[in-house]
Design goal:
Structural class: alpha+beta
Number of helices: 10
Radius of gyration: 20 Å
Oligomer: single chain
CATH class: Alpha Beta
Order of helices and strands: EEHEEEEHEHHEHEEEEEEEHEEHHHH
CATH architecture: 4-Layer Sandwich
Number of domains: 1
Number of strands: 17
CATH topology: Metallo-beta-lactamase, Chain A
Bound molecules: zinc ion
Strand content: 25-35%
Length: 315
């Protein structure tokens, strides 16, 4: 039996001319039993002004930045989860959501954009993400899977090329482009006062990295990007991964980086021995890593090793 929920979002915006625009938007959504089961989040207070919403199946962890000015979200998960997302944010803050930063183009990170934009939330992302959303929406699994193009209002209204800062809630939120890694348009978000990093899917704690060659990703770039993040982090820095349970810290990033180094070295050593790609794929090179990192039947060494091989051969 479906239930209907109604969520009212009231926003007050001061324009440069001093006009006040008040718009009240209503979302009438049908929340089925499936919705309630699949679109719920586990909330965490990470540190300072930053919270995290972990979807029940850990796809697309959402960062929530709160304070006296406004709410800023990092990523918007899928559209059907937006009512639950709003409920959870409402538990964390009385302020309106002003901004969503998309860390990259994948559907589990931009899916809620359109509904949130309907409420007046400003969508922000790297220039590349906007272009990718205009061209074709695709994920790397199963040899490149296409998704329906997002509606026009899901596109970023603000995009940046190198970095952009938000000055909100008493601190600076620095958003900057990572080297090509998970995709070619990955943003890292650093909440400087709270000392929290959100790294999107460049960093995941639950499985081997996904390198999206269809959207400009790079395995060697991922090593570079993680080196950058690790170099920024101090002993008290907390880190939100794009996927994986809970948040972690510098040590968690270094564990992931060690796995990236191990994969690179295993393939490099096989190339140095003269092994072909077929021999590399048949050799079960990752057997000592699989217990910890083989978390997904749709993406594993047979997907990742050819990418590493191709990049190393091109060097
Ligand atoms: Zn992704």
């Amino acid at each position: 039996m479906a239930a209907v929920t109604e969520v009212a979002v009231t926003r007050e915006m001061n324009s440069a001319s001093g006009l006040m625009l008040v718009c009240t938007l209503f979302l009438a959504s049908v929340t089925s039993a499936q919705n309630n089961a699949n679109w719920t989040f586990t909330p965490y207070h990470v540190q300072g002004n930053v919270h995290m919403l972990e979807p029940i199946n850990t796809n697309g962890n959402v960062g929530v930045f709160v304070g006296e000015d406004a709410v800023l979200l990092v990523d918007s998960h899928f559209q059907p989860s937006v009512p639950q997302l709003l409920d959870e944010v409402g538990e964390m803050s009385d302020q309106e959501i002003e901004f969503v930063i998309n860390t990259h183009v994948h559907p589990d990170h931009i899916g809620g954009n359109s509904l949130l934009a309907d409420y007046g939330v400003t969508i922000v992302a790297h220039d590349t993400v906007r272009l990718q959303m205009l061209e074709e929406l695709r994920i790397p699994r199963n040899g490149g899977t296409f998704f329906p193009q997002p509606p026009a209002n899901a596109l970023p209204v603000l995009s940046y090329s190198e970095a952009i800062s938000f000055h909100l809630n008493g601190e600076e939120v620095r958003v900057f482009k990572a080297p090509p890694a998970h995709t070619g348009g990955d943003s890292f978000v650093y909440f400087m006062g709270s000392d929290v990093l959100h790294l999107g899917d460049v960093f995941r704690t639950n499985m081997y990295p996904i390198v999206d060659k269809y959207n400009g990703g790079s395995f060697l770039g991922m090593i570079e990007a993680m080196g950058l993040a690790i170099g920024m982090a101090g002993p008290n820095t907390k880190v939100i991964p794009g996927h994986g349970p809970g948040f972690t810290d510098r040590t968690g990033m270094m564990e992931y980086q060690d796995m990236l180094f191990a994969l690179r070295d295993l393939v490099a050593e096989a190339i140095a021995r003269g092994d072909s790609l077929d021999e590399i794929l048949a050799a079960d090179l990752t057997r000592d890593l699989d217990d910890r990192w083989l978390g997904d039947t749709n993406w594993g060494p047979l997907d990742l090793l050819p990418i590493i091989h191709e990049e190393l051969m091109a060097q």
